[in-house]
Amino acid sequence: MDDHKAHARRRPHLLKRTAAGLLSAAALGALTALPAHASDDPVVGGNCAGASSWVTVCRQEPGTGSGQGHTASGGKGSGKSLPETCAVERLDPQPPASDPIWKGHKPGNGAIYARICLSQALGAAAGTVTPPQIFWAATAPAVNVDPEQLAREAVDRMLLTGPSIASPRAAGKYIVGMPMWMWVNQTPTTYGPNTASAGLAGVTVTATAEVSKIVWKLGDGASATCNGPGTPYAASFGKQESPTCGHTYTRTSASQPDSKYAVSATATWTVDWQVAGGGGQTGQFTEVRQTNVQVALGELQVVR
Prior knowledge:
Blueprint: H1 3-22, H2 25-28, E1 43-44, E2 58-60, E3 69-71, E4 81-83, E5 86-90, E6 111-117, H3 118-125, E7 133-137, E8 144-145, H4 147-158, E9 164-167, E10 174-175, E11 180-181, E12 183-185, E13 194-200, E14 203-217, E15 223-226, E16 246-247, E17 261-275, E18 282-295, E19 297-298
């Protein structure tokens, strides 16, 4: 498992655990506080542009990788900036009145708060500690939680991948003119359904993801859209075409690089989310994941 996946699995616990470690009383004196303003009330989610300087930090969604990988997409194209999940909490215990972090204010006249974001928690787990921002505020900062962003954090925990292609196989032998049956294995991470939850500031969102369609590009200029996993082939079907997802090649792959067609299967995951106890607030977005395979097509050899 690579570092990205390992970090994604630990995200829900890292934020709270790392914040507690970074906000120890011994570390408070070494932290540099920035002045707080009314316009800096923390906002989690929403539009990155012009958002609160205390809480919202834009992050770039990952791009498409080669081979079996994925492209994160919010349904409006990949590579867009999204606000990062952050939390703001009142320090407990509060720093002593002599601490310069009070900026002339007295305990009881407002309080000292800390802001820490998910990237800081993940960085701390990797050995790179970035101190949280510590600031005074007259009243508890409001936290406006974007439920869709929490749903996306829940999806990150699912570790969704591209389709697990059962057919066509890279090691398979396929013949021009013979119907090819295409189907995928169904697991929680490759097809769904897959369910996970994420919470912040008292808001919990549960998301369920499942593949709604797979678009196959066959390498010969043709493509096929399949609205299900496909039907597994059995010898008893003979030369029948697949009733759900198939393709028939009309020429060999001899002229292709490595004498194989470059085949891709791109899955669209539909994600439905719901806020627990939030008046039934729901939403939906899509994620895209892709898997590639090389397929050789030959001609039937007739022995005389």
